[in-house]
Amino acid sequence: MKISPAPVVVTLVAIVCIGLAITYNGQKMAAQANGPKPEPTESIAPNVTVINAVPSTYQAYVSGHGEAKAHWALTLKAQVKGEITNMSEQFATGNLVKKDQVLAQIDNTEYLQAVASAKATLADAKLALQEEQDLGGQAKREWQRSGVTQAPSSPLVFRTLQLEAAQATADNAQYALQTAQRDEKNTRLSAPFDAVILSRDIDLGTYVSIGDTLATLNSTDKVEISVPLSLSQWQNLASDKSGEVILSDVTTQNQWQGYIARFEQHLDDSSRQRSVVVALDKPFEQATPLLPGTFLAVQIAGKSLNNVIKLPASAVSQDGLIWYVNEQNSLVSIKANKVFERDEYVYISPIEGQSNLRVVARPLVSYLNEMLVNPVVEEMP
Questions:
Q1: Same domain, 169 and 205
Q2: What's the whole-model pTM score?
Q3: Could you tell me if 294 and 67 are in contact, meaning their C-beta atoms sit under 8 angstroms apart?
Q4: How far is 280 from 263, CA to CA, in rounded Å?
Q5: Whole-angstrom distance, CA of residue 347 vs CA of residue 271
Q6: Domain residues for 113?
């Protein structure tokens, strides 16, 4: 059989090409090995903005929230029964009324009659009492004229018991008159204090019974806000109730100057916190009235604290850490021991062994401990 020369030629050409490629690659690798080596590049430390934080003395402020509530809240109820025969135009929701201002009138005919009857009964009782006093005096004079030296064997002789009975009857008649006069007075419905009317539950011609709800009133003399505080906040609060109190509407940012009214002496059942009660007098007479029901942010000036570091709130990370740059320009993280917060600043306890702290103003989540950085000092905002 005759063999074709084409495959042999192709095989020989392939072997030659492979040999040439190996020779070329070997020469290139040798040239690279014997050539100059590239110089290593130095890593550049990132810039970080730091604040020189030095411990100092600051006025502590205690912050909290609470709802403004009226000093007195009253559900006005009927003390007597009858038909509403007259009603003041001021007796409407939202209106301000003065103490003892008559808002409505219950038919008082029956009660005027009761007063007159009680007066008549009292007059009769007084007459009977006077008669017994005269008879008692007469009995004593007759006993003396009789020449008997010993005391009478019975108190009936000097009409002592009769006089006591007459006196008791007169006293009862007097109290009955006072009760009748009180009932007649209660036919005139009025506010027991300066108030704002929240609701009116009767109309002209309504028949009311004793105990029926007539209206709901809130006093206007002052509002009070109960602010629950943590134990650490109580430690920063002065005990003399003299601290400045700033009330801020969380919705409109309107502000008022209040005062500390009292300290609660118990823990709340649900929050297990103790509250301070702050107040504002004449809330409806302020330039911007403070209405009951307003939710407020409250700031109370507390003690003056020494050896405290002031930082912008942005210096504390979401997990409560602060980052600072040590003498080797390396980052170090540590848990911030917050003493109090106010506005856009946080006040922390100093870090042991660090008298002049270079705190990172705005730490990033990518920061690592012992990471080299280039600190750039920024003034406290």
A1: no
A2: 0.72
A3: yes
A4: 15
A5: 25
A6: 108-186
